[in-house]
Design a protein that fits this description.
Helices cover about 50% and strands about 10% of the residues. By secondary structure, it is of the alpha/beta class. The longest helix is centred in the last third of the chain and has 24 residues, at about 355-380. About 35% of the residues are buried.
């Protein structure tokens, strides 16, 4: 019992640290109240306006005007206010981990989520950046530190949602190929018991796969197992269905949709997560509309400059990756973490390729073949089901727009679902549809430049 108590205290220590953190208000004999300014800052800190509540607040001013006193006046007495004094050699994430006594960001996120549930609001972090802090890497790390806005935290909120109208919905996770969907999910669910992974095949519906994993022969036994698991876990078990690109059997995909609706929404036995390697696959798994869509974008160029990213790159490559090589890799594959890992691992010293230059050249050939494969869409029936031969037209339109801007979806007359299914079936992915901005984008700057050279097919040329 003592050991169990010790382990419980160890698990709770990070979020207890947040709950117990407060700032001391300035003493009345040393602070001249600035009520109007204080009220404005308090409104900003505790804003519930949808457009602003997740923004961070930057507080600046002349030297010695009383910025710290103002903040202490506004936040004095509130629990869950964590002060972090930033140093030139200590990035904010490292400082937070040190304060909470944890070693990884997933533990930090768990602490914030738990603290938020206890406080009834988000915890507050004050980063105090002194004049002597000039390290650009540390300063950039501050602008990237938004725990509530991070994908992992958003996904965790969706998985463990207690909202009555959403908690029985299944979660559909999709995104760019090689964008890091599996990595994100493993990061979010790390340390949680009761997570059953189901890798689908074209001839194995999910119910059959789950019966095989559990070693039972009928669905009543599956249901009993889920009920018993929930009683032990204190929450529903999680079923993680991983659908690879090669799974295209419409009967199997429809069975996933039925399973999510039946076991998740109607019987309320499990929480279902469906990970789709392509948007075309995700489109066919509707769950009768009881679905929460979660799109995983590729990493931005700025995210590749973070200390965490560079640390991982060094592990993959076996040595430090310089800024010039990071830029070369980003230009070639964008922020698709799977492709970045391929290049860095294949380009390690002592491997078959043995150099980054050879790994980059190999990946360039792979992407060029992808573009050539995309050209076959117009020659092989166009975009299903109507057969619009507009692939080369779309390629040239995307190329005409800046890489960062993408082509607005309303300019392309094909339904995004039909586009996604055709791209999946043709194994051609130089262009993807971004659901958050409703636009068609090139997968990387290099691919963006190649799209302008795609050969026009006759029907596509007439449309052009």
């Amino acid at each position: 019992k003592e050991e169990q108590q010790r382990q419980k205290e160890e698990r709770e220590r990070p979020f207890r640290t947040i709950l117990d953190s407060k700032v001391v208000p300035p003493s009345t004999d040393s602070y001249i109240p600035r009520n109007e300014l204080s009220d404005k800052l308090k409104v900003a800190v505790f804003s519930q306006e949808e457009d602003y509540k997740d923004f961070f607040i930057s507080i600046t001013g002349n030297h010695e005007v009383g910025k710290s006193q103002l903040i202490r006046h506004v936040l004095g007495g509130y629990s869950g206010v964590l002060e972090v004094s930033v140093d030139n050699d200590l990035p904010p994430r490292t400082a937070i981990r040190s304060i909470l006594g944890v070693t990884d960001d997933s533990a930090v996120v768990r602490a914030f989520v738990e603290a938020k549930s206890q406080l009834g609001r988000k915890p507050i972090i004050i980063f105090d950046v002194h004049e002597q802090v000039t390290n650009p890497g540390v300063i950039k790390g501050l602008s990237n530190f938004h725990p509530e806005e991070e994908l992992s935290d958003k996904l965790k909120a969706a998985v463990f949602s207690l909202k009555e109208d959403l908690q029985d919905y299944f979660i559909s996770i999709t995104g760019n190929r090689e964008a890091g969907k599996s990595q994100l999910i493993r990061y979010v669910l790390d340390g949680y018991d009761g997570v059953l992974e189901v890798s689908l095949e074209n001839d194995t519906p999910p119910r059959m796969a789950i019966r095989t994993i559990l070693g039972v022969t009928d669905e009543n036994a599956v249901a009993r197992a889920f009920v018993e698991a929930e009683s032990k876990l204190g929450r529903k078990p999680i079923i993680l269905i991983d659908i690879h690109e090669r799974v295209t059997n419409p009967n199997v995909l429809d069975a996933v949709s039925n399973f999510a609706k039946d076991f998740g929404y109607e019987k309320k036995l499990v929480k279902v997560l469906v990970v789709c390697s392509t948007a075309g696959t995700a489109a066919g798994i509707t769950g009768d509309g009881r679905r929460i869509d979660f799109f995983v974008p590729q990493l931005t160029r700025e995210e590749l400059d973070s200390a965490d990213a560079r640390r991982v790159f060094e592990i993959w490559h076996g040595k430090r990756v310089n800024d010039e090589d990071v830029q070369r890799i980003f230009d070639l594959v964008g922020g698709r973490i799977g492709n970045i890992k391929e290049i860095l691992v294949l380009g390690r010293d002592g491997t078959m390729m043995g150099s980054l230059d050879k790994a980059i050249a190999w990946m360039k050939g792979k992407l060029l073949r992808d573009v050539r494969q995309y050209e076959t869409i117009d020659r092989c029936g166009g975009f299903s089901p109507k057969g619009e031969c507009l692939a080369s037209w779309l390629a040239h339109e995307v190329a005409r727009f800046p890489f960062e801007q993408c082509l607005p979806g309303e300019r392309f007359p094909v339904d995004p679902e039909d586009f996604g299914k055709t791209a999946r079936d043709r194994h051609a992915h130089p262009i993807y549809f971004h659901p958050d901005i409703r636009a068609y984008c090139a997968r990387s700057p290099f691919v963006h430049r190649q799209l302008g050279s795609v050969a026009f097919q006759p029907q596509s040329l007439r449309n052009w």
